[in-house]
Design brief:
The chain is an alpha/beta fold. Helix content is 47%, strand content 16%. It is globular and about 70 Å long. Bound molecules: 5'-O-[(R)-(carboxyoxy)(hydroxy)phosphoryl]adenosine and zinc ion (ZN).
């Protein structure tokens, strides 16, 4: 079985192709991401209308490239090439993509050039995410499903960030020779799991009792952790996206910075760190950074000192975020006697965060296995959508019924 997955919920255009054999062994045939960072960098954040436009431009080239890489590209012969898409079909295609005219144009050219690839399922993110961005991916999936007559599995983006962690188990576990051997026999070894999803739009602690069985224990009441990284970076004059920029600078920070004889080292608050729930709040941290940086970043500051302060602030912002995430997550792992801790979302690409989570778990909870994705699978990609669709391959829906849900939740 081959799954073609589409991800456009924010500012990354992703297409992946995943193959599963009858025994449940998975192979990644393609995983292409067209990043829009260069475009959004200029504005210091993601502009939904602009992201939508870029998805329209990128989807067909990314699909073409992914099919080529997967060796699934089927060019039409010269004669068939000239044949137009049937009138009745092109009318419906026009309706499906009426709000994405640029994508429609590119797709028509593509369909004139290539025949249906050997694909059995189309997976697409239908929420949560930015409404205009979600619609481009969803309408693209609807168009391909209609033209090629391939069923669609809608995928929750947050579940994708969680389940991408199971990819390696299915690809590289030499002992398993069927999907069931991992997810039936070993299920009791993995669950209950606590998942921490930390991205630009979400910060959620989720109790996972099995594939598809989730309960949100807590989440951020205001800014997400990634959003906090991005906003703090902007205040400090660092580029978008802020997470990697802060992480890089934090690495170079001196361990303590003596500001002057009276003010001591940089200290920022850890909002809600001691509350007895599993919720988070990061907007206060951002405000604290704003005031602190106003205070420190004086006009006549020598450039070298400014750089050192920026690095010191970065290290402290990063540590404040890690401290809060870590404390609440360890509490959840203990409270629910979790056997696995699963990290996911763009912020889980942070090396320091991964290191401190691994250390804390191995010091306090030796029985807990920690699953973290490699950096390229922490941030948005379509492979996470493909693997999620693989687990839910029976939940297909007709293209006519597919919608987007900007605030889609993993549990009630
Ligand atoms: O999951 P993701 O790619 O997109 C959303 O679903 O939102 O997450 C993007 C977020 C951005 O806020 C970005 O600053 C953050 O992930 N991020 C990081 C790192 N890499 C990406 N945050 C901290 N450290 C990183 N290395
Ligand atoms: Zn994401």
């Amino acid at each position: 079985m081959k799954i073609l997955a589409i991800e456009t919920s924010c500012d990354d255009t992703g297409i992946a192709i995943l193959e599963a054999d009858k025994a449940g062994n998975l192979s990644v045939l393609a995983n292409i991401v067209a990043s829009q960072i260069k475009i959004h960098k200029k504005y210091g954040g993601v502009f939904p209308a602009m992201a939508k436009r870029e998805h329209q431009r990128n989807l067909v080239p990314v699909l073409t490239y992914a099919l080529k890489q997967a060796k699934l590209q089927n060019p039409k012969s010269e004669i068939r090439n000239k044949k137009q898409i049937q009138n009745s079909k092109s009318e419906i295609l026009n309706t499906i993509l009426e709000r994405e005219p640029e994508l429609l144009k590119k797709l028509i050219l593509f369909l004139k050039k290539y025949t249906k690839p050997d694909v059995d399922l189309i997976a697409v993110t239908n929420g949560p995410g930015l409404e205009p961005c979600l619609w481009v991916g969803v309408n693209f999936a609807r168009a391909l499903s209609y033209i090629w007559n391939i069923p669609i599995v809608p995928v929750n983006h947050i579940e994708g960030h969680v389940l991408v962690n199971f990819l390696n188990k299915l690809i590289s576990n030499p002992r398993h020779n069927s999907r069931d051997s991992v997810f039936s026999d070993n299920t009791k070894n993995l669950f209950p799991a606590i998942c921490l999803v930390v991205s630009g739009g979400h910060t959620q602690l989720i109790l996972m009792k099995g594939i598809g069985k989730y309960k949100i224990l807590g989440e951020t009441r205001d800014d997400a952790a990634g959003e906090c990284f991005d906003k703090c970076a902007k205040i400090l004059g660092l580029p978008y996206p802020g997470g990697p920029a802060i992480a890089k600078l934090a690495d170079s920070a001196p361990s303590t910075i003596q500001l002057d004889s009276t003010r001591g080292t940089i200290q920022l608050p850890r909002p809600m760190i001691n509350t007895p729930d599993y919720d988070f709040s990061f907007s206060g941290l951002k405000t604290a950074v704003l005031y602190k940086w106003r205070d420190l970043n004086k006009k006549d500051l020598p450039a070298l000192l400014r750089k050192a302060l920026q690095a010191g602030m970065s290290a402290e912002v990063q540590q404040a975020i890690i401290d809060v995430l870590l404390k609440k997550t360890i509490k959840a792992v203990k409270d629910y006697k979790a056997k696995t801790l699963i990290l996911g979302g763009g912020v889980s690409a942070n090396q320091e965060l991964k290191k401190q989570f691994q250390q804390a778990i191995s010091q306090h909870l030796t029985v807990v296995e920690v699953l973290t994705p490699p950096a390229n699978l922490s941030t948005d990609n379509a492979l996470m959508i493909a693997i999620t669709a693989y687990f839910h391959k029976n939940k297909t829906i007709a293209w006519q019924k597919l919608k987007t849900y900007t605030n889609l939740r993993i549990s009630k």
